[in-house]
Amino acid sequence: MKLLGRLTSINVRKVMWTVAQLGLSLDREDWGTGFRTTQDPAYLALNPNGLIPVLIDGDFVLWESNSICRYLANKLHATTLLPTEPQARARVEQWMDWQAGELNNSWRVAFMALVRGQPAAPESIAASVGSWNRYMAMLDAQLERTGACVTGDDFTLADVVLGLSTQRWKNAPIERVSLPAVDAWMSRLTTRPGFADYVDNGMA
């Protein structure tokens, strides 16, 4: 298997952290900003969105990072990371979809302006920071309820994708609300394989 995408991408690191949890070995090639362009016709033939990452498994090609994480867990029958019981699985996927949708949309303006340097009105940045903190408070409330991982006692793909998102929130140059359950959860995650390489590595 091969993964296409630069390691500075949070979505590539999401997949690589999943790979570390699975004890899987795969090749990775740098594509994207600073490397080979994803607008290359050969790349666009793999992913017409021109985004990273892309997984190549033989003649099977898959894009969208959360889908790649699910595929890898399914391929290796990692039923703790992605349960087979319908309700348990739905709960994990619910939080993965929330990460990709609501949470990501909340931080987009603030992060792109304050970290990536894209122009944005101050009021738009402030609104994005406020929204980002509100959604992170929702995660904090969930972790306070479980007292362990995002969906319960077991570490799942929900913890993978939200762990990366939380690290971005913690590293961003914004005023953050106090979230003790999130802090305790992140401290517990430090013992997971690959955390230092793909989460707490200083990358945004």
List keywords for this structure.
204 residues, alpha+beta, Glutaredoxin, Glutathione S-transferase Yfyf (Class Pi), Chain A, domain 2, 2 domains, four-stranded mixed beta sheet, 4 strands, globular
Topology:
Elements: E1 2-4, H1 10-22, E2 27-29, H2 41-46, E3 54-57, E4 60-63, H3 65-75, H4 86-114, H5 122-146, H6 157-171, H7 180-189, H8 195-198
Parallel strand pairs: 1-2
Antiparallel strand pairs: 1-3, 3-4
Helix pairs in contact: 1-3, 1-6, 4-5, 4-6, 5-7
Characterization of the model:
- This protein has 204 residues and is α+β, with helices and mostly antiparallel strands.
- The chain has two domains: 74 residues, 3-Layer(aba) Sandwich (Glutaredoxin), CATH 3.40.30; 107 residues, Glutathione S-transferase Yfyf (Class Pi), Chain A, domain 2 (Up-down Bundle), CATH 1.20.1050.10.
- 55% of the residues lie in helices and 7% in strands.
- Strands 2-1-3-4 form a four-stranded mixed β-sheet, covered by helices on one side.
- This is Glutathione S-transferase family protein.
- Belongs to the GST superfamily.
Largest sheet: 4 strands, mixed
CATH class of the largest domain: Mainly Alpha
How far the N terminus sits from the C terminus, by CA atoms, comes to: 26 Å
Q: How would you classify the helix and strand content by structural class?
A: alpha+beta
The string of secondary-structure elements, in order, is EHEHEEHHHHHH
Rounded to an integer, what's the Rg over CA atoms? 17 Å
Relative helix content: 55-70%
Categorize the overall geometry. globular
Specify the oligomeric state: single chain
Strand content is: 5-15%
Uncertain spans? none
* Structural domain tally: 2
Strands of the widest sheet, in order across it, are 2-1-3-4
* Architecture per CATH nomenclature, i.e. the level-2 architecture of the largest domain: Up-down Bundle
Count of alpha and pi helical runs? 8
CATH topology of the largest domain: Glutathione S-transferase Yfyf (Class Pi), Chain A, domain 2
